[in-house]
User: Fold this.
Amino acid sequence: MQRPVASSLNCITPLMAISPAALQDALHWRYATKAFDPGRSIPAETWTALEQSLVLSPSSYGLQPWKFVLIRNPELRQQLRPHSWDQSQITDCCELVVFAGRRDIEQADLDRLIETTCQMRGLAPEQLGFYADLMRRNLVEHEQLPASAIAEWVGRQVYIALGTFMTAAALLEIDTCPIEGFDPAAYDRLLGLEGTPYRSWVVCAAGYRATDDKYAQLAKVRYPAEQLIERR
Amino acid sequence: MQRPVASSLNCITPLMAISPAALQDALHWRYATKAFDPGRSIPAETWTALEQSLVLSPSSYGLQPWKFVLIRNPELRQQLRPHSWDQSQITDCCELVVFAGRRDIEQADLDRLIETTCQMRGLAPEQLGFYADLMRRNLVEHEQLPASAIAEWVGRQVYIALGTFMTAAALLEIDTCPIEGFDPAAYDRLLGLEGTPYRSWVVCAAGYRATDDKYAQLAKVRYPAEQLIERR
Assistant:
């Protein structure tokens, strides 16, 4: 059932979709893994696809106002762990991703996006004038979002990538644990993000659940759909 | 290749995973659909799985501080469209979901979660004391998050659900368009959320791309992985 990866970045490649039942299976199977098996590695092909899930994640305007810091260095993980409520996932998982977002959006960010878009789509910047103006008015001149709200808006975009990553991982039978219990200031210092345009927002550990992680066997707690979904 | 849906909510169901290549195919295929085919409906089994992707979406503490308003009423959609930059997706898509989040977190929300957890896992509330205290200190007594930051924190959780939903949809070959270009106050008024504990954060249209949506054929614009992923 393997298909070659789409050879170019476009949206018209025919798909091999999964069944609705298989999707639900994967989402049921997922849980916030508390104990990872430190001895198991994610196969390279699988991890590459998960990195691509980060790269391909949707963001408002397609702005990609983020950076993903992938931490494999064991000493650095040891340093981060005490700033993460001493959670074992930080050191025991196979891949540790810090999701970072722009502290602010500047005209140069928009110019970079317009330039990249023109290159990839064979357009002249004038053809993207409406799009460029819209972004400038909203993000740089703050017609819609006040300046103070930009960082929070970026934070929300970052969480789209987090949701994308965890869902993609579950489909590939890779366990994850999203982690908000950490000190962003300490992370920024240890990761060298201090004084840069990026700040850390959330962390996600990925790998394989330990066979004795008792949380894997607990019933998933969700409110019934009738309470969460309103129909109009 | 169809499997029965997991019969109970747990995390140990064996999975039928997809291949890394198929995942990447789906993520390449996805794009923010500008023109939906108003004549095509999502099959019931597929839509049920997508509703479940909302219900099963991860959230911090498993708190589920959200509500998903599903709008099928054509008159209501017509009323919402002028408050959504007159975007055609609002009226032409098959399913329109407004992602709403709690304005604040109260002790009663935590009590409800603890009670539900005890019921589903056969526990006594005392056994969840650590978890209950942690949530209370952080979300109600504001040891970690100031009161003013709670709504924004909820907003980020809501965006996890948005990322989960769009990724799940792409895997099922369902098109989506995330929409931030709308007036949340007008939505809250028209949806009856005004004066309730919930506010609208983001909208997502779902359905099938129109065969003449020219955006489907544009190259996807992404920065190279080397620029988005830092390795430590």
Summary: Residues 35-104+149-210 of chain A form a domain with the NADH Oxidase fold (CATH 3.40.109.10). Residues 1-9 of chain A have pLDDT under 50 and may be disordered.
